[in-house]
Design a protein that fits this description.
The complex is a heterodimer of chains A (115) and B (105).
Chain A: E1 5-7, E2 10-13, E3 19-24, E4 31-37, E5 44-50, E6 53-56, E7 65-68, E8 75-79, E9 88-95, E10 105-106, E11 110-114
Parallel strand pairs in A: 2-11
Antiparallel strand pairs in A: 1-3, 3-8, 4-5, 4-9, 5-6, 7-8, 9-10, 9-11
Chain B: E1 4-7, E2 10-14, E3 19-25, E4 32-37, E5 43-48, E6 52-56, E7 59-64, E8 69-74, E9 83-89, E10 94-95, E11 99-104
Parallel strand pairs in B: 2-11
Antiparallel strand pairs in B: 1-3, 3-8, 4-5, 4-9, 6-7, 7-8, 9-10, 9-11
Classes of the chains: A mainly beta (115), B mainly beta (105).
Amino acid sequence: EAGVVQSPRYKIIEKKQPVAFWCNPISGHNTLYWYLQNLGQGPELLIRYENEEAVDDSQLPKDRFSAERLKGVDSTLKIQPAELGDSAVYLCASSLSNSEVDTQYFGPGTRLTVL
Amino acid sequence: GIQVEQSPPDLILQEGANSTLRCNFSDSVNNLQWFHQNPWGQLINLFYIPSGTKQNGRLSATTVATERYSLLYISSSQTTDSGVYFCAVWNKLTFGGGTRVLVKP
């Protein structure tokens, strides 16, 4: 069974440019998460989807970040425009449901560098 | 929001040594998970452990929910155990700052 797939793995952009990250969760997983991980810190939740509905986006900076999960499968996270402080690793994870006993499976992440 | 603190922040071990990592949390939680992030950045779930004790090979974990802490034990450490260990609590999906472990051959 394939794990969580993310692309691209690395992205380097100039500040003020737009950027998008893509995530394909494990087949059959209804819940999808986007996290941001700064160097030397733990991941921080940006948004959580139950199927196609965003059920927790309280920590998503909505002035420049947006996300979508059309058809409740794969998801895209976008930043427009990017700022220097957005340099980080963006992690996607999925779980079978929102049950508290469900394990989250993480993708390899996208490392973003904003110059 | 809930605070999750891990200690120690860094740990250097000689191969074969045992160690204990600690996770303290500031409020009641419905579950707690331990993750290992390898040197290539991949996060792997180790334990889902809201209370009690679990063991998986050389790793074991204990959560005392009433006292708001969890412990991760690594026995007979190997170089492949190197990386960062995170605990995370389900309420608001909050991660601790991690313990960076380096196992030397």
